[in-house]
Amino acid sequence: HTLVFFFFFFFFFVKFFFGVLVTIYLLVLTVASQETDGFRRFLRSAKHFNYTIKVLGGGETWEGGDYMSPPGGGQKVRLLKSALEDIQEENKVILFVDSYDVIFSSGPKELLKKFQQAKHRVVFSAETLIWPDRHLEDKHPHVREGKRFLGAGGFIGYAPNLKKMVSDWSGADSDSDQLYFTKIYINPEKRKSINITLDSKCRLFQNLHGALDEVVLKFEDGRVRARNVLYDTLPVIIHGNGPTKINYLGNYIPNLWTFETGCTICNENLRPLSGLQSEYPGVVIGIFIQQPTPFVTVFFERLLNLKYPKNRIQLFIYNQESHHEPHVRTFLEYHESEYQGVKLIGPEEDIDPVTSRNIGFDMCRDNIDCEYFFSIDVDVVLKNEDTLRILIELNKPFIAPMMTKPGRLWTNFWGALSADGYYARSEDYVDIVQGHRVGLWNVPYVSHIFLIKADALRTDLKDPDLFESATLDPDMAFCSKVRNKGVFMFVTNMHTYGRVLSTENYQTNHLHNDLWQMFENPVEWEERYIHENYSKVLKDAFIETVNFYSVTKHFTCLYLSMEHFGQWSGGGNVDNRIQGGYENVPTIDIHMNQIGYEKEWHKFLLDYVAPVTEQMYPGYYTRFDLAFVVRYKPDEQPALRPHHDASTFTINIALNQVGIDYQGGGCRFLRYNCSIKAPRRGWALMHPGRLTHYHEGLPTVEGVRYIVVSFVDP
């Protein structure tokens, strides 16, 4: 890594002395040991305000520590002292700032004006919190209003005064610059001699550590800056010191996203894949199954539908759950040969989730053909088939598609960090989630799904302990280390990508467990089990008897759950399951409440049947009572004698297919001499029950027929 200084020169005429106009020169210095995403962001903001940049120095390795431990930063003081030795101009103003976590929100003219208004020769940024030695708190001078503790991440002053300030430095590179400057400031004689003050009201510098609630975005005339609402000031320099970093402010300032332009950087440095002459980039897709999860079969169906050449994909599948072994096994049985390669770790190998993540990363690191690792937890519903292509084309070291949960403000990212490094809601979070602001967003935390470049895994993120922490869960530990390595994590909401399932109440004690997910995951349940043409019935004209689309083939497996339960009624008149204990027209059946599906079935009727019934009979409130699955078979109960239903009207849904699973069946309405053949699987038949529609069940002559029956308004 190369150690560099960045010089920003600016000439500004500010004072008259004895009738002579004096030229003030501004020189801005910063130190960086490597070109990180944060450093590039710093340069971008400097370029926006037309600072002239000159690079000096080099060949040194950073030995100055980091912000997480008190020592560190001494190397900056040594380098500053060396640079100041070559500066002889009395009227040169030096601005010294960090770079990885700093952005400019205004230009040199405003900076110098505010510096002159401070009426001191040296102005330091100010902090809400004292660091690194809290025992020095009482020695800090009190201020009339504002912050009273010194921040070493940014200061401005005349060169002679700064020379005097650092002249006594003889510390090690790993010593604390913050502590060094603090001790100068709290010494009354030195403070007066050098003429030091603090920017207590954040007119020049805004340190974010401990001050998140003070700062909001201010949009004005096609540009964005930060406003300190506590002091009603507009800082020139924003410093994301401590664990908070720049937070969401860096997604806007100075003009990365505005209401007038939207995202100004979203189309920069893209990697187009359309029309690619060579092979697509090699990708390892890591699939992680760490808990019982609904709709795993659907997950693999969507994985197959990704629009990316399978011969450029290797799969790494980690499955910790025995319950999901059949799902994984079935997928691989039919599709393993389509992929470039597959590595499976099953529950029998007893590998913990953290180790599995590292193994997945290594599968990409060790394969020279791998350019990307695409990590997906199995509870992700990846609706957008172009997701992988879109993420690759955006060409970021680390990027995630925004995922949501229906009806909630939950997403797979955090908009900001709190002072202690945990979740904080950024002021733009809701607008991003609801799509009012669209773009690329640098965020401090992502989970469930992300794409990371193999180059990053082989360099900045090569450590084997990325997911390990004594205090943080693996996802938080990983994101913390990614941030500390200077790799930006981006989230994009420029397209709709999908959602994340709720897994909290998922039970695995049924034959078809996903059928019970109507309350926890209603959107996924509807997509899986309600017929795609169901809504057409609400637009059609009705007659007294209606036959319509209702459920998909996946729902009709309900009859298999009934067979698995196995406790079919005997078909006799005595039936203790119903009120009164007597059934006038008995069938071979199992009631919904016997398998614990009564609540789900009632919601199905309210959400999908009631709209149909109320359209047929406007103003007629729909109530439901008995619901059961009936089995017809030639050697058991092939048909049902003529009868009226104990209902105002009845709905029955065909659970299997006439002509394939059975022959015969259907319903005959005797009064009208009208017979309706057994409907197709998943279709519903609705007809009046009492008085007008005396009917019988026609014989099933071969196979087994299953229907689900509900009585409405009994």
UniProtKB/TrEMBL annotation:
Q: Name one GO molecular function term.
A: iron ion binding
Subcellular localization, per the record? Rough endoplasmic reticulum membrane
Enzyme nomenclature, EC number: 1.14.11.4
Q: How does it sit in the membrane?
A: Peripheral membrane protein
User: Could you tell me which residue ranges the Fe2OG dioxygenase domain spans?
Assistant: 623-714
Enzyme class (EC, first level): oxidoreductase
Matching entries from Gene3D superfamilies are given as: q2cbj1_9rhob like domain
Q: Which cofactor does it need?
A: L-ascorbate; Fe(2+)
Q: PROSITE patterns annotated for this entry? A: FE2OG_OXY (PS51471), LYS_HYDROXYLASE (PS01325)
Q: Which GO terms describe its cellular component?
A: rough endoplasmic reticulum membrane
What catalytic reaction does the record list? L-lysyl-[collagen] + 2-oxoglutarate + O2 = (5R)-5-hydroxy-L-lysyl-[collagen] + succinate + CO2
Q: Where are the transmembrane segments?
A: 6-32
Q: Which UniProt keywords apply?
A: Dioxygenase, Endoplasmic reticulum, Glycoprotein, Iron, Membrane, Metal-binding, Oxidoreductase, Signal, Transmembrane, Transmembrane helix, Vitamin C
Q: Known PANTHER family for this protein?
A: PROCOLLAGEN-LYSINE,2-OXOGLUTARATE 5-DIOXYGENASE 1, PROCOLLAGEN-LYSINE,2-OXOGLUTARATE 5-DIOXYGENASE/GLYCOSYLTRANSFERASE 25 FAMILY MEMBER
User: What name goes with this protein?
Assistant: Procollagen-lysine,2-oxoglutarate 5-dioxygenase 1
- This protein's species is Cyprinus carpio (Common carp)
What lineage is this protein's organism placed in?
Answer: Eukaryota, Metazoa, Chordata, Craniata, Vertebrata
